[in-house]
Description:
By secondary structure, this protein is an all-alpha fold. It is 76% helix and 0% strand. The chain is built from ten helices and no strands.
Amino acid sequence: MKEILKQKIEETKKELILQKVSDIFEKEGFSHLKMQDIAKKLGISIGALYKLFSSKEELFLAYVGYQIEMFYKKILKICENSENKKDCLLKYIQLKFEIFSEKRKALEDPLMGDPLFFLKMGKSQYKLLEPLHLLLAKWFEELDKIKPLKEKNFLKLSYLFHSFTNGYVEYWIMHGGDLEEDVNRAVDIFLKGVEK
Length: 196
């Protein structure tokens, strides 16, 4: 029982740190900050921060995981009563683009310095996206019942959709513009490419 309680306290600490780190990264970026800068901004010792996250990269990946989890909860809530799965795809992209727009400073550093950052994430970190892929796969399966899709592996379609929409984000980071104005176009282009 003592170990379970200790683990819960550790998880709560991490979540509170990630909430505050989100604000820091989103206002100031990531690359120029050192762990001691982050600890100072959090109001904790450098040792306490290293006890929770062994490196700045681990902290950033935890931040990414936390953001994915928050995104998943939001999109579930937004689409919980929607029967129209195309509308869910629109809402998914709209939320994704809104969040990337809000968090540009946090994501710009790693993406500008290494455009393949997300592709280099380890398999265990990439698994954080699996609930989103499964949700998208379910939506594509529903869409297939209404209008047949060329690809019947709906999980593969979800990965393709994810990469396709990331292309819009990467272009926006590198060249600017209004990311959110591309929502409808992105869904239409993707669905036209996969519908029979």
